[in-house]
Amino acid sequence: MDTTHRIATDAVLGLVLLVGLALTAGLLAVSWGGLYWVFDCLAGVAAASLALLRGPRRVWPVAGGLAVAAVAVVVARVADLPQEPGPVTALALAVLVGSGIRTLPGTTAVAVAAGGLTVVGGTWLTALPDAAGLTAVTVVNAVTWLAAVAVGMVLRAVDRGHVT
């Protein structure tokens, strides 16, 4: 990917994440009330920033994104807040997981996929016993993780010349 394409891609991603943060904050402020929206936005900003800092063979943004999402899941459960990670954090995490699977060495890529699945599992566990854990947040996180794994694997195969 050339520099111009990378800058354009990151600009669009940044705009999508920014709009997502604003919409999510507004919706949470109206529906949940209080200051919960601040917590969700902080997690979203942290994950989004890491997604924009990703790069080929960079482990630290991916590991950081997984950590942000995992901490958000635990804090939300302990503090009796709505489920996390929110939609922006989930999207940023999907970008990081897909990028990690695409560019990192094999065992590290597998660890990234497993870390993402662990976050999805944590989200599901925090929803129990409501709706057997299949809330909208759980489904969004599961679908974005699955899409990230699929896209990451396809792009990895294309980059290595296994698919033309």
TrEMBL record:
Keywords, comma-separated and alphabetical: Membrane, Transmembrane, Transmembrane helix
Transmembrane segments: 12-30, 60-79, 133-155
Protein name as annotated: Metal transporter
Organism in which the protein naturally occurs: Micromonospora citrea
